[in-house]
Specification:
heterodimer, A: about 140 residues, alpha+beta, three-stranded antiparallel beta sheet, 4 helices, 3 strands, about 45% helix, B: about 375 residues, 2 domains, 13 helices
């Protein structure tokens, strides 16, 4: 599974799932911490729609960690102050970068979590759609 | 006249700071940061937007420390922000990827995807709810459970929360001129102070981090006659935008290789401004120009006002101060404006004494 989809599931989903996957790697490998989870900023670049040009909307507070497993670097970045999650994300990223055996068993777990996220999102969206207006034109 | 160094304020300052803490605690109640984060969404959004730093938790801490005073909270966040490293730049964020929670148009009734009211004070009576005085957590939790359990009539959510842009529809119909994507790297006002004339990216960045009241006031002034435009809200949308960062270990900038780092909630507004265009043989036709606004959180008035000022500054009509970029951009920043006004409280003993001397001399000479 590619990084974009994988990190979408891991960040949006339950931290329990992320912890469980990371723990499998931590139990089996020597995880070298290259950068302890620490705070920083990500500048957000937006395309505005009037002239379709780019501008900076502002910065986003993030937590980032870097680890190395069998020579493979892994990075974890997440919005907000989440040291534990950033570390787990870095471990899982390093595992995928090193194509470690364990990652093969991760796919099904990630796909299941993706389904859970989708169900939650759909429920949330259904509630929002209750506020959709049904216009009726009145005879005056 | 020479400068005079004075001392003697140290103990008084220490006691003053102690007294500030006393004022925060004197009613023997403590607001938890979690409570602020949960119950002061509007203030948090405003503070995040004005400080140009997205973090509900940090905003809540700064609101607690500043006792709910936005200018103090924004100052604290801006100061803290300056201590943090900027680790990455996001991939370009497009608002068509927004998971929409509210989306309305004042220009068209039947917009593709429909009008979704989401949550808004607009439809309330604005009567104080005195029941809130005795609101109990058990009742709130029960209400929440009931709300979440309400069975919903299945609505067709074909876009998974995404909704088409009204502007795209108008452009496809030929009602608004389309333009090409401009990929010029934006300038960053936090790295280099603005110089005039400014670039569009600088104007938008200063406007989005402007003080809510100032942006609203100048937008209002432009509408009332101190500006030359008559806009209508083409689309106002609020929702979450996903943020991605390129893999720093891979120069390919492959979309699939990027890191998803979370979502931010924003308000985006496009206002449509009708402009009479002179055509051949003295004919005039109406065309629409667009004003653009986007800011952190649910901050609708500010985003609309920003879109008005965006258009004003694009046109730069010399007759009006709201079209003057120096006037607008140099006066709407919270920290700059409050800082400069506040500096008047700093000791001006020497300069004021010299003025007093002049007055005395003048009086003697009379």
């Amino acid at each position: 599974m590619k990084r974009r989809r994988r990190t979408e599931i891991l960040v949006r989903g339950s931290i329990e799932v992320t912890r469980r996957l990371a723990q499998k790697i931590i139990d089996n490998y020597d995880v070298k911490v290259i950068e302890e989870p620490n705070n920083g900023l990500v500048m957000i670049k937006v395309r505005e729609t009037a002239k379709k040009s780019l501008f900076y909307l502002g910065e986003l507070f993030v937590t980032e960690a870097k680890v190395q497993i069998e020579g493979n670097l892994g990075i974890g970045i997440v919005r907000g102050n989440h040291e534990e999650l950033a570390y787990y994300l870095a471990v899982i990223d390093a595992a995928y970068n090193g194509n470690l055996e364990e990652t093969k068993s991760f796919t099904d777990i990630l796909l299941q979590e993706e389904k859970n996220i989708d169900i939650q999102r759909e429920k949330y969206q259904e509630k929002i759609l209750k506020t959709r207006v049904s216009f009726e034109t009145m005879d005056v | 006249m020479a400068y005079v160094a004075v001392k003697g304020g140290t103990i008084a300052i220490e006691e003053s700071i102690k007294r500030l803490k006393y004022e925060r605690l004197r009613k023997r109640e403590i607001l938890s940061v979690k409570e602020i984060e949960a119950g002061m969404r509007g203030l948090i959004d405003q503070v995040m937007s004005e400080s140009s730093l997205y973090s509900e938790e940090l905003a809540a801490i700064s609101i607690k420390q500043g006792e709910g005073n936005p200018e103090e909270s924004v100052f604290l966040l801006r100061a803290y922000r300056s201590t943090l490293p900027r680790k990455h730049y996001s991939r370009v964020v497009n608002s068509e990827d927004m998971i929409v929670e509210r989306r309305i148009s004042a220009s068209f009734k039947d917009i593709p995807g429909g009008q979704t009211l989401g949550s808004s004070y607009d439809y309330t009576h604005r009567l104080i709810d005195f029941d809130l005085i005795n609101e109990k957590i058990e009742d709130a939790l029960e209400w929440l459970e009931r709300f979440e359990m309400e069975t919903d009539e299945k609505k067709d959510n074909v876009h998974g929360g995404k909704m088409p842009k009204v502007l795209d529809y108008l452009r496809s119909e030929g009602l608004v001129l389309d333009c090409r994507e401009n990929n010029k790297e934006p300038k960053d006002v936090t790295k280099k102070s603005i110089e005039f004339p400014t670039e569009r990216s600088e104007r938008l960045q200063v406007l989005t981090r402007g003080q809510t009241g100032s942006v609203t006031t100048l937008g209002y002034a432009a509408l009332r006659g101190y500006g030359a435009l008559h806009p209508t809200v083409g689309e106002l949308r609020i929702g979450n935008l996903p943020i991605y960062v390129d893999n720093p270990l891979n120069d390919s900038k492959d979309d699939e290789d990027s890191f998803y780092i979370g979502e931010i909630r924003v308000t985006e507004v496009e206002t449509l401004i009708p402009i009479p265009i002179e055509k051949e043989r003295g004919k005039t036709e109406l065309e629409f120009e667009i004003g653009y606004g986007m800011c952190y959180g649910q901050n609708e008035t500010k985003a609309i006002a920003m879109s008005i000022l965006d258009y004003c500054l694009e046109t730069g009509n010399p007759k009006y101060s709201t079209h003057d970029e120096e006037f607008v951009l140099l006066h709407i920043d919270s920290v700059e404006a409050t800082g400069f006004i506040s500096h008047l409280k700093l000791p001006h003993y020497v300069t004021f004494q010299s003025k007093l001397d002049s007055v005395r001399k003048t009086k003697k000479g009379e």
